[in-house]
């Protein structure tokens, strides 16, 4: 892995950071376009929310808002759309019988839709990386994990 020291002049580093931003933007645009082209079952927002709900047992809409740095009313509208599509439901009541702040979970339909969307995206990614060596894939995974590890707080 490359050294964390910066041997390049500031202008060159700035140019490289701009290039990285553009490449990440291309990845995002292609993923969204691929989902539309393949008639994938979920929009980017739906996929993001379902992924969070599915991977965060016991989460509430307020947890989504905090994690995504969004207004609670925005998340509430998005989650309402997931309910209308039959993708999420409230978990059975535990001790809290109030309507607000209830735990969310995926329905069987939501799980199937999320799995189908993930499979389409994984297949595309596997195809893109097919000619990469194992070492290149490992380094790419390590660098992406490092990039995503310490997200600064949004203010």
How would you summarize what this structure contains?
It is built from 6 helices and 2 strands. It has 155 residues and is mainly α.
Task: Count the DSSP helices.
Answer: 6
CATH topology: Arc Repressor Mutant, subunit A
Specify the overall morphology: globular
Radius of gyration: 19 Å
Strand order of the largest sheet: 1-2
Determine the structural class based on helices, strands and strand pairing: mainly alpha
CATH homologous superfamily heading = Winged helix-like DNA-binding domain superfamily/Winged helix DNA-binding domain
Count of beta strands: 2
Give the termini distance in whole angstroms. Answer: 32 Å
Helical residues, percent: 55-70%
β-strand amount: under 5%
Secondary-structure element sequence? Answer: HHHHEEHH
Please, how many domains? 1
Low-confidence stretches are none
Top CATH class? Mainly Alpha
Biggest pleated-sheet summary: 2 strands, antiparallel
Q: What is the typical, i.e. mean, pLDDT? A: 85
- What's the architecture in CATH terms? Orthogonal Bundle
Blueprint (SSEs and pairs):
Blueprint: H1 10-37, H2 44-55, H3 61-68, H4 72-84, E1 88-90, E2 104-106, H5 108-128, H6 134-149
Antiparallel strand pairs: 1-2
């Amino acid at each position: 892995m490359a050294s964390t020291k910066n041997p390049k002049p500031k202008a060159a580093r700035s140019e490289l950071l701009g290039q990285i931003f553009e490449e990440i933007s291309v990845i995002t645009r292609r993923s969204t376009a691929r989902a539309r082209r393949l008639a994938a079952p979920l929009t980017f927002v739906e996929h993001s929310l379902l992924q969070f709900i599915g991977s965060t047992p016991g989460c509430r809409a307020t947890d989504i808002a905090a994690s995504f740095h969004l207004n609670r009313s925005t998340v509430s509208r998005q989650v309402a759309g997931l309910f209308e599509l039959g993708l999420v439901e409230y978990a059975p009541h535990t001790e809290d019988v109030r309507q607000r702040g209830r735990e969310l979970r995926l329905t069987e339909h939501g799980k199937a839709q999320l799995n189908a969307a993930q499979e389409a995206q994984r297949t595309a990614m596997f195809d893109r990386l097919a000619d990469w060596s194992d070492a290149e894939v490992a380094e790419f995974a390590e660098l992406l994990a490092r990039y995503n590890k310490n997200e600064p707080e949004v203010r």
